[in-house]
Amino acid sequence: MKRIEFHNREEEIKEIQDILSVEPMLITFVYGPINSGKTELIDHLAKQLPKDYVVFYINFRGKFISDYSDFIRVLFKVEREKDYKEILKTISETPVEALRFKGIPVTKSMIDAVFKKSYEDVFEFFEGYFTKLSESRIPVLIVDELQVIKDIKIDELWIYKLFNFFIRLTKELRLCHVFAITSDSLFIEKVHSDAMLHGRCRYLLVDDFNQEVTMNFLEKHGFGKEEKGISWHYCGGKPLCLVELVNSQSKEGKAEEMFKIRKGQIEEIVYSLKEKNKKTFAAVLDVLSEFEDRDKIGYKYLREETRFLVEKNILFADPVNKELRAQSMLDLLAIRDVISRQKSRLFLLKIRRGIRSGHVR
Ligand SMILES: Nc1ncnc2c1ncn2[C@@H]1O[C@H](COP(=O)(O)OP(=O)(O)OP(=O)(O)O)[C@@H](O)[C@H]1O
Ligand SMILES: [Mg+2]
After folding, report:
1. pTM (2 decimals)?
2. Region of 266 on the Ramachandran plot (φ > 0 left; ψ -120 to 50 alpha; else beta)
3. Alpha carbon of 298 to those of 211, 285, 306, 339, 356: distances in Å?
4. If we measure between CA atoms, which residue out of 201, 237, 242, 194 comes closest to residue 221?
5. Are 211 and 300 in contact, with CB atoms under 8 Å apart?
6. Which residues of the chain does CATH 1.10.10.10 include?
7. DSSP 173
8. If 0-12 CB within 10 Å is exposed, 13-18 middle and 19+ buried, where does residue 200 land?
9. pLDDT at residue 104, as a whole number
10. For 10-205, which CATH superfamily applies?
11. How far apart are CA 337 and CA 313, in angstroms?
């Protein structure tokens, strides 16, 4: 498979560079639909930062976290050969481009010490760590797939303690930039409505490419007029989907295959509800039918059936703009297909009933 070069994101890059050019003030929540390119953007940016920055990137995706000790293991990266002073010295003095770490480098003995204490001590430990570092460099903490931690049962106030720590690093001590990335709209919705975070965070939407950026991307990869039309019709500006097309010989065949798969998945999710809960099934169809002739709809709060569709990653809820839309163009097409088939089914059913009762000849 061809390595695809990073494309565009000029506006988002400018916005993040502006955030990084001043003292850390707010936590930045980076959100957007699935596979819109959030991680790719942050990774690309981290590689380009000047040498006075040091980036700590922690990704919770795929990490099995059931308790506090699992959480700690994901946060840290044990440098077995080095002692604490050596680690800090390396970070402070290495005269290359911005250093990037996957996890926060510590020694084995530090990890052991952390394990013996409670989690307030971990946050205290980090505070000391970042304070020391900030004397020579600008630390940037990036936490990807943050929503994974929402279900960790440490204690009920766990997530608040973590957010409090982020507030302390940014607004209070101005020590470290904090970026929290998530594609879970229910999580971002929860964060958005949380009184504790009001005035302490900002939201940055990383959306699918718009049409112009998509066309430029496709042209760069040698797509002709017809291929561009097919790509936009099926994939819209979803970067992952476009990359799949770039890597396929038959663009149309690949697009149709992706559509067929997504349609099957959505049908399965929606129709399996019919057996379990007829009322929710009907309500879910009602929500979906609103997308028959519209791309997005406004909302005031998320009702149970909408929450279900968001949870199943069929719809994306944007709590900042109070908008609901399909997670992707493929999802939108699949939703429309499911609704139109359902309507035809109901229509046929009505006719059959009419015939049986003698109203239709
Ligand atoms: N700006 C870009 N230029 C080129 N390719 C991109 C770009 N953004 C994303 N991609 C492609 O799309 C894929 C998905 O992007 P990425 O993993 O960053 O999405 P995401 O929003 O973080 O997804 P998730 O919602 O699952 O966390 C990447 O692996 C890459 O192939
Ligand atoms: Mg990601």
Report:
1. 0.89
2. alpha
3. 22, 17, 12, 20, 42
4. 242
5. no
6. 263-352
7. T
8. middle
9. 79
10. P-loop containing nucleotide triphosphate hydrolases (3.40.50.300)
11. 17
Cβ atoms within 10 Å of 223's Cβ, excluding its own: 20
In one-letter notation, the amino acid at residue 311 is E
Cβ of 239 less than 6 Å from ligand 1: yes
Nearest to 57 by CA among 175, 147, 142: 142
Looking at the chain, the domain(s) classified CATH 3.40.50.300 span 10-205
Coil, strand or helix: which one is 55? Answer: strand
Mutate to test the pocket of ligand 1, among 40, 41, 185 (most ligand atoms within 8 A of CB): 40
Q: Ligand 1: which residue has its CA nearest to atom 23? A: 35
**What is the domain class of 263-352 according to CATH?**
mainly alpha
Residues 6+ apart with CB under 8 A from 129: 88, 104
Q: Is the CB of 88 under 6 A from ligand 1?
A: no
Q: Which residues of the chain have pLDDT under 70?
A: 1-2, 79-82, 84, 87, 90-100, 117-120, 151-157, 347, 349, 354-361
Residue 103: the pLDDT is: 74
Strands (E), 219-319: 296-298, 315-318
